[in-house]
Description:
Blueprint: E1 6-11, E2 23-28, H1 32-36, E3 41-48, E4 59-62, E5 72-75, E6 80-83, E7 93-94, H2 97-110
Antiparallel strand pairs: 1-2, 1-7, 2-3, 3-5, 3-6, 4-5
Amino acid sequence: MIRRGEIWTANLNPSRGREISKIRPVLILQAEELIDADTPMVVVLPLTTHVYPEFRLWRVTVPARDRLKDACQVVVDQPRALDRTRIGDGPLTVLAPAELAAVERSLRVVLGMY
């Protein structure tokens, strides 16, 4: 069962325009209450291996560890709601509390909720 703060693979195809695509790692961001209610959708943030230090205000870097083979950035500026059938293998790793807090801060910046 998926849990908030875990990184799983997901199929983000098809995409449109500049939306992030491919089968790639995603961070499960949805509230535990919704996960436990077995809602058909799950809110995620995609990860990319293209790490841009200048984007650190709204992207959080996660070092390679466990089954996450490469250092990645959580692409906080592209949240997605996915059908659960798009979620694949995992968990690859779990964010530490400080990392998840950094993602939450970045998401507030992206959403103008600071």
